[in-house]
Amino acid sequence: MAKTILAVDDSASIRQMVAFTLKGAGYEVIQAVDGEDALEKANQHTVNLVLTDINMPRMDGLKLLALLRKLSNYKTVPILMLTTESSDDIKAKGRAAGATGWLVKPFDPKRLLEVIAKVIG
Amino acid sequence: MAQIPDEHVATNFYFDRNFDSEAVKLLPGEYFVTNKDMMLVTVLGSCVAACIRDHRSGIGGMNHFMLPDAGGDSNNPLNASARYGTYAMEILINQLLKLGAQRSNLEAKVFGGGNVIESMTVTNIGQRNADFVLNFLKMEKIKVVAQDLVDIFPRKVYFFPKSSRVMVKKLRNIRNAEISVRESAYKQALDKVNVGGGEIELFS
Q1: Domain assignment present for B203
Q2: What is the domain count for chain B?
Q3: Are strands B155-160 and B165-170 parallel, antiparallel or unpaired?
Q4: Do A106 and B197 lie within an 8 Å CB cutoff?
Q5: How far apart are CA B203 and CA A29, in angstroms?
Q6: I want to staple B81 with a disulfide (CB 3.0 to 4.6 A). Which of B41, B57, B70, B172 is the partner?
Q7: Is A75 exposed, middle or buried (0-12, 13-18, 19+ CB in 10 A)?
Q8: ipTM of the predicted structure?
Q9: Domain-by-domain residue ranges, chain A?
Q10: CATH fold of A4-120, please?
Q11: The pTM is what?
Q12: A75 has a chain B CB within 8 A of its CB
């Protein structure tokens, strides 16, 4: 069965590019527009991997990460951050909150798929 | 692998006596956001600048960029030049949100994309830049409230985020050579880099 990825980004352009990439590789994709939307969808679906932006309205990606890690069924689900943020400071925060990995935008479709395969392959 | 050229914060501040205003000048590849009453200035050839502001709070900013010529199918949403353009726009929008702008209040004025660099006339990079920025804003549902795009003249753009006022001066022959040289150098730097994505780190 195809694995399901929850892709979270407030930018419709990025969501489109990410979904296109993931679907092309055979993944099921659920899209969310911010942290709150993602949290709701994470509760409704079984998700194998979360790929989330950080800077978003309503609830940002770091808050989402922290809240997901409190849910029993998301303790071990890989959560990758896909963000324009690259400072060591914020990376350390993400790591401490339980992020699995960090990808700095702009993303390269091929390398994104390689990382995902490595994490949930 | 070559590094992506980061979009940089503009640092060229000055006091503009004509406008009696604090000002910052943006060069190609730069952006600037502010919640102050000041003026953002840039000179565009084939590059484009998006002036985006929260119409409620007056928090606003500007970028100045062009798409790298990454080859491949320009209609493919995943082609490297579109990914770079999306990144340049996202940097600006993220900085506005960080200052407190609301995404749903954002509106845009867009300028540039002139067909001014002779060596670029074959592919008309100005048109391509203009098309990209309009498509991006449509996709993001950010309303375009003013635009002055393409044509053959360089432009000098003065943007006052607080009031939303923009003045555009078409530069009919002054310093075209200088603009061309600067943009060509920026374009070469962009084309040279492999738009292969930012760094990746796995924590476990």
Answers
A1: no
A2: 1
A3: antiparallel
A4: yes
A5: 24
A6: B70
A7: exposed
A8: 0.88
A9: 4-120
A10: Rossmann fold (3.40.50)
A11: 0.90
A12: no
